[in-house]
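S.,

Sequence below, as promised.
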Amino acid sequence: MDPITSRKAEEDRIKAEAALAMTFGQCAEAFLAANEVSWRNPKHRQQWRSTLKAYVYPSLGSLPVQAVDAPSILKVLHPIWIDKPETASRVRGRIEAVLDYPVVDRRKS
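The prediction came back faster than expected:
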């Protein structure tokens, strides 16, 4: 492997490890900072923040990203799934987007 490719691979590895060391809350805030500029509707930005704050942060906010697993996500979704299925579906998608963010962000660099 040539030195430039090797250095880039090492930088990517370090960034990935740093991203995985973040808490879910930190990762979510980084995701929002990187993406909410593209959301033209202020209501959409507010809905993202309010649903994360109300439903996700209490359970997942302080967990390391790598510790978030299916049972912890179900713990968030189960209480709202029956009464608010549309909200639960959106929250599930938002959790997925946040968890994908370190991987997607690493590919951009």
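The chain is about 80% helix and 0% strand.

Coffee later?
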